Amino acid sequence: MQPRNMSMSGVVDLAAVKAAGEAKQKAEQARREQSARGGGQSTGPAQLVIDVTEETFESEVLQRSAEVPVVIDFWAEWCEPCKQLGPMLERLAQSYAGRIVLAKIDVDANQLLFQQFGVQGIPAVFAVLGGQAMPLFQGAAPEAQVREVLDQLIAVAEQRFGITGIQVDGEAAAAEAPKAPENPVLAAAHEALDRGDLGGAVNAYKNVLSDDPANVEAKLGLAQAELLRRVQDKDPQAVRKAAAESPADVDAQIDAADLDMVGGHVEDAFGRLVETVRRTAGEDRDRARVHLLELFDVVGSDDPRVSQARTTLARVLF
């Protein structure tokens, strides 16, 4: 089943000003209550993925949603696409380290919730922010698209609802994180990148990803190798002159952003493309947005500059 509704349009429609204000009040109240209980206690990584039933929905989802975006995965044992999407969502929930919580709901055992949310088919993914429910997408989807939706959800949660997530016990998270065995193909890709064999590095990283599409290290290496290959034959002066003379020329801005990245000016690269998204429309706007997301991969999703740029991009888009 192909993903549908892979956007945050539902969030914007449901996040009315009144609802957002109420959600912010709930978030502040939750933080005050946590502080009164001795606050600052960390959540272990296992608690970032929870099984929810009709009996526990209010406490595990509605109450939690006042302090962290709760992503709901409607699934069933007989659903083959669910077996693809579910583990990915669990892995992503752990990787976001408290910025989201994943609530898994077995539709066979919780028909009332299934009906109340108006689910048309599974897997179906919803979110709850400050008690406000919204659809995210339906069907199995590539990890890059799912991550983009979750990033937008997190940005909207913070901007419109004042919800910033929960603290996670870093030591426990590190202890639970599986250690990947050494991959000789990945090692060869790193070596090719180090010696400047960009074509060889790109091919090697792609070989790793063909067998392991979720390999974060290979994704990062591939993004870096492709970036270096794009700029290796560019004339920096000509690129910057073209970008300065044609602010609305998407290709010129993309080339300049690539040079910014290679030169270590990460914020400048991100800001340039966010501004390009702001001033363009249609296919041009989408090309600028997609390239910005590719540059995020060069730096890595854990970098605070990426988080800040995602927030700014979400503000421009929505």
UniProtKB/TrEMBL annotation:
Biased composition (Basic and acidic residues): 23-35
Region (Disordered): 23-45
UniProt keyword annotations, A-Z: Disulfide bond, Electron transport, Redox-active center, Transport
This protein's record includes keyword Transcription: no
Keyword Disulfide bond attributed: yes
Annotated Thioredoxin domain residues: 43-155
A Pfam family per the record: Thioredoxin
PROSITE patterns recorded: THIOREDOXIN_1, THIOREDOXIN_2
Gene3D superfamilies to which the protein is assigned, alphabetical: Glutaredoxin (3.40.30.10), Tetratricopeptide repeat domain (1.25.40.10)
UniProt similarity note: Belongs to the thioredoxin family.
Protein name: Tetratricopeptide repeat protein
Native species: Streptomyces humicola
